[in-house]
Amino acid sequence: GDSVTQMEGPVTLSEEAFLTINCTYTATGYPSLFWYVQYPGEGLQLLLKATKADDKGSNKGFEATYRKETTSFHLEKGSVQVSDSAVYFCALSDSNTDKLIFGTGTRLQVFP
Amino acid sequence: NAGVMQNPRHLVRRRGQEARLRCSPMKGHSHVYWYRQLPEEGLKFMVYLQKENIIDESGMPKERFSAEFPKEGPSILRIQQVVRGDSAAYFCASSPQTGGNTEAFFGQGTRLTVV
Lengths: 112, 115
Known about the structure:
The complex is a heterodimer of chains A (112) and B (115). Chain A has strands spanning 3-6, 11-14, 19-21, 23-26, 32-38, 44-50, 56-59, 62-65, 75-77, 86-93, 100-102, 106-111. Chain A is 0% helix and 51% strand.
């Protein structure tokens, strides 16, 4: 079945460092891909998405490109802030029902 | 326009009791999804409902768990005879339609603790 694999955390960075969180997927068909962010004690918020190959999703300085040839959707940010500290989830959606299949999440900790 | 509302935010139940979790989708949304998040894990799909219909319940445990989304009122996730392993955060998401390009909006979750 469909699945998502993302790098284990925690990822610990200093403020203004470059961030990469790797995400790869396995899917039949052509899923949409998402990154969600979860702040402590909160629900998930959509960070960005891409719906077809070579699309780039971007939001709040974060970017991810849908790479069909490598089945990847890595999350990047050029300069992280302390306020970016959260858990980041990569996900794909079933094209028929829109149910989401999540990776296990990567905790990001940014220190001043 | 209020977001997805879940209540209660925190629920404590003793083993063997019933837990009822409520989810009111965003206005105009007729699709509801329930997910479970175990401690330090990702979210796992449980069930997908439209008004009065269960569309996909492939992630629901076969026993003790049920879900409904009536014509009027919130969606309910019901867990009968809870056990310690049911302790988790349960998230509801809603969307206006399906089609792969539709954003699902999440509630803040209900954190169930079974003692």
